[in-house]
Amino acid sequence: QVQLVESGGGLVQAGGSLRLSCAASGSIFSSNAMGWYRQAPGKQRELVATITSIGFTNYANSVKGRFTISRDNAKNTVYLQMNSLKPEDTAVYYCNAPNAYGSFRYPWGAGTQVTVSS
Asked: Mean pLDDT, consecutive 10-residue segments, the chain of 118 residues?
């Protein structure tokens, strides 16, 4: 069973930067698209960014130009570089692998909290 462990969150002032990491156990990581998702208090979980197995990326409009998703298949790790952070980016951030049916391949991890102060 693949396990996902997110890290790198914290408290940062508006305009600051953070780099999130998601480490995945299991050798099938490299063949799957991966994504970052976030959930703010009282809101549904939403897509932030995805990256295919060969590096094609897609971003939510709200983070385009500020966030960058990348992956290191040798380390079974996906990253999210977040720059120019805004208070509305405050949320718990999760990673997972989307499947073709609108669902996800793996159990959700605990996520990592990102708090952006104004």
From this structure: 93 98 80 94 96 95 98 93 98 94 92 97
